[in-house]
Amino acid sequence: MMFWFWFNGEAAPKLAMREVSFRKIFNYLDNFDASQPVVIVETGCLRTPDNWAGDGQSTLMFDRYLQDRSAGGICYAMDIDPVATAACRSFVGPRTEVFTGDSVIVLRDVAERLRASGQKISLLYLDSFDLDWNNVTPSAVHHLKELVSIYEFVTPQTLVVVDDAPMDVVCTQSANGGFDMLREPVVSGKGKFVAEYAAQVGAKNFFSHYQSAWTGFR
After folding, report:
1. For domain 2-215, is the CATH number 3.40.50.150?
2. How far apart are CA 143 and CA 153, in angstroms?
């Protein structure tokens, strides 16, 4: 795929700490039946052009991937900020539909489209409500609400990814200057409550870097 030539040469070098997880995301999408379109649902969208290390430019990458995939597909992206959605629309093609509004509500509209077309989600990428690292709860709750809003169209094969969701470690410093962990690391940030729900329903953690992902929901 020409996408990989572009990703390796143009996108990957700029993605900083998100490079490893985006590479895994697109490798995962490559494993879907090549004769079938893929469906990507993204909350939050490209806001500032060329802000690769800061925002990741996910919508642009998803759009480029779908353009190059033989069976195509569609990306539904959304953001509450009309300035952001206007900017996003100017950088994507017809395979990406961009909606303006609260993602929890917009996802119900996307659900109706998926129901009408008989489609399920291949990739659910959650990255809307801005995160306060000193109080992750409001953003983490919002992202769990997003998962609930579209859950009917999540399958065991759907890759659910949450941005800004690295591991949280509780430790003490030892006398020799090292660190002793008091518990196993857990996903925090935007993915805190999605991770807790995933563990309760037996979903499998697919990766945990700066972004975290799961398969096996439902």
Report:
1. yes
2. 16
What six digits make up the tokens of 25? Answer: 């995301």
- pLDDT averages per 10-residue partition of the chain, 218 residues: 94 96 98 95 92 90 95 96 95 96 97 96 96 96 98 98 95 91 93 98 97 95
Using DSSP's 3-state secondary structure scheme, residue 84 falls into helix
CA dist 71 to 93, 117, 154, 175, 192, Å? Answer: 16, 16, 20, 59, 35
For the chain, give every domain's residue range.
2-215
8 A C-beta contact, residue 39 and residue 121: yes
The neighbour count for residue 9, using CB atoms within 10 Å, is: 9
Taking the CA atoms of residue 152, residue 190, residue 74 and residue 4 in that order, the dihedral angle to the nearest 10 degrees is -130
Task: Please report which helix (H) or strand (E) contains residue 167, including its range.
Answer: strand 167-168
Assigned token pair, 2: 């020409």
As beta bridge partners, residue 40 has 75, 123
Per-residue CA distances from 31 to 35, 122, 206, 215, 216 (Å): 11, 10, 14, 13, 15
The CA distance from 22 to 7, in Å, is 10
Q: Is the separation of the CB atoms in 210 and 17 below 8 Å?
A: yes
Length of the chain: 218
